[in-house]
Q: What sequence folds into this?
């Protein structure tokens, strides 16, 4: 058992945070109660510090009365850090091992769940185009955050990140010159319009919304780490129900099905790249 | 002041290291008792594209089991966990691992502050934090939190550190309970965590 101090400081803090999350849920409909609590706490704490407030009760009041404040908090709570062709070896694996099998279908559907600002969506769009699959595929890109979804639709990224993206693209086995895919001005690049043709962006909340359609491939990379185990299990069930038999699930490099209820429903295809396949028999 | 350490049932150890950390960790981890009945969680600053060589390397030379930490993994005694490159490592209230790709903290991901602050919240006064060699001030804020919640903080002595900026920052900005030369750290840990018989 731990001491009084822990009870006082930490328990009170936890209670305040619980009430704040409840307020967000009731007022705005976003449910963060099943997010990984250490993560939520850090993000709230960060916002508390930079907003010069002294406690979460004060912050809760502000959340209820100030929608702009809530919107900035909403961005804090979702982590939107990613790259084009992030973890290049994953894309290499997809190109070499998944694409030949996906080519046996007349038409494929791909779902990017938690697509953030779209970097990884356009990466798969480029990959499908280079593999000659573009005209028989549909990509669905979803996120719960409308602001970030607008950014994704635009496909505009700062010029300074292109060096990393280009390096990733080359390591992933890209077949062309990466600069063929964008036009640059002084500060930004805009991706080629044709990369957006087969992409449908829409709002979808993994916490509350349901099955999305019958997919051949689902990407959900570095999203589940922000959920607690219960919510992870719920979302993995949702993915299971949204995949066709033999469909693929790609998780983030440090995510796995190992500590979830769904481990025996999938078979690992690539251990390092965290690619799983839905088993054909239940 | 009495020099005998207070025996308290500690539940976890967190270690932060940056520049020069490989040598420092090599002086500590293999010398921890194989009967060490608690988990050790380590953040060593790494380049973002590093693989799991640290865990593999130390697993070969340590008597305790060493592994790279995985998301949602229950934290076990007798085990040393390394934060994976390019991810923050957090400790949850229920003593499981949580990883995150959030912004760098003190220019680092993984950051020592993130590990120390979340571990302090999870273990409070049952936590031991150790800050080792390094060339920035990551870890200092985390140590403040550990001390606030009455955990024990040890700094590698600046004289025995390959780069003294990190332990100096911790000592000067946050204050520590104990300053030890590198070679004294493992024996001290073994001593204060030894099970009473």
A:
């Amino acid at each position: 058992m731990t001491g009084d101090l822990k009870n006082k400081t930490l328990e009170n803090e936890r209670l305040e945070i619980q009430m704040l999350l409840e307020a967000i849920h009731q007022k705005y409909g976003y449910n963060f109660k099943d997010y990984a609590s250490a993560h939520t706490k850090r993000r709230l704490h960060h916002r508390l510090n930079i907003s010069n407030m002294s406690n979460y009760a004060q912050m809760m009041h502000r959340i209820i009365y100030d929608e702009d404040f809530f919107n900035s908090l909403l961005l804090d709570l979702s982590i939107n850090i990613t790259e084009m062709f992030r973890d290049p070896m994953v894309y290499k694996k997809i190109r070499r091992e998944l694409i030949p099998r996906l080519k046996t279908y007349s038409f494929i559907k791909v779902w990017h769940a938690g697509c953030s600002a779209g970097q990884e969506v356009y990466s798969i769009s480029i990959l499908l185009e280079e593999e000659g699959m573009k005209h028989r595929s549909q990509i669905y890109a979803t996120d719960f955050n409308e602001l970030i979804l607008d950014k994704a639709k635009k496909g505009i990224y700062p010029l300074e990140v292109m060096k990393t993206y280009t390096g990733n693209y080359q390591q992933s086995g890209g077949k062309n010159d990466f600069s063929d895919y964008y036009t640059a001005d002084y500060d930004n690049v805009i991706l080629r319009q044709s990369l957006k043709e087969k992409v449908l962006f829409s709002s979808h909340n993994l916490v509350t919304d349901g099955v999305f359609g019958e997919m051949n491939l689902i990407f959900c990379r570095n999203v589940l780490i922000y959920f607690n185990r219960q919510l992870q299990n719920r979302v993995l069930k949702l993915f299971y129900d949204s995949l066709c038999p033999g469909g693929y699930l790609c998780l983030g490099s440090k995510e796995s099905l190992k500590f979830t209820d769904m481990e025996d429903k999938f078979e690992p295809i690539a251990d390092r790249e965290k690619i799983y396949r839905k088993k054909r028999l239940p | 002041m009495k020099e005998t350490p207070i025996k308290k049932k500690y539940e976890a150890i967190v270690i932060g290291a940056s520049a020069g950390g490989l040598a420092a960790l090599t002086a500590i981890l293999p010398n921890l008792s194989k009967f060490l009945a608690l988990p050790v969680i380590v953040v060593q600053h790494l380049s973002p594209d590093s693989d799991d060589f640290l865990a593999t390397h130390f697993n070969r030379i340590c008597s305790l089991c060493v592994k790279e930490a995985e998301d949602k993994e229950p934290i076990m005694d007798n085990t040393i966990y390394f934060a994976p490159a390019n991810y923050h490592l957090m400790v949850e209230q229920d003593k499981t691992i949580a990883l995150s790709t959030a912004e760098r903290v003190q220019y680092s991901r993984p950051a020592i502050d993130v590990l120390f602050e979340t571990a302090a919240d999870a273990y409070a006064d049952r936590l031991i934090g150790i800050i080792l060699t390094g060339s920035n001030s990551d870890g200092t804020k985390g140590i403040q939190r550990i001390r606030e919640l009455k955990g024990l903080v040890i700094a590698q002595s600046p004289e025995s550190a390959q780069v003294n900026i990190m332990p100096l920052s911790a000592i000067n900005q946050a204050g520590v309970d104990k300053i030890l030369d590198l070679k004294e750290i493992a024996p001290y840990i073994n001593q204060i965590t030894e099970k009473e018989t």
In short: Chain B has a mean pLDDT of 94. Chain B touches chain A at residues 70-74, 84, 87, 90-93, 96, 98-103, 114, 117-118, 121-126, 148-150 (CB under 8 Å). Helices of chain B lie at 21-28, 53-61, 112-123, 140-148, 165-174, 182-193.
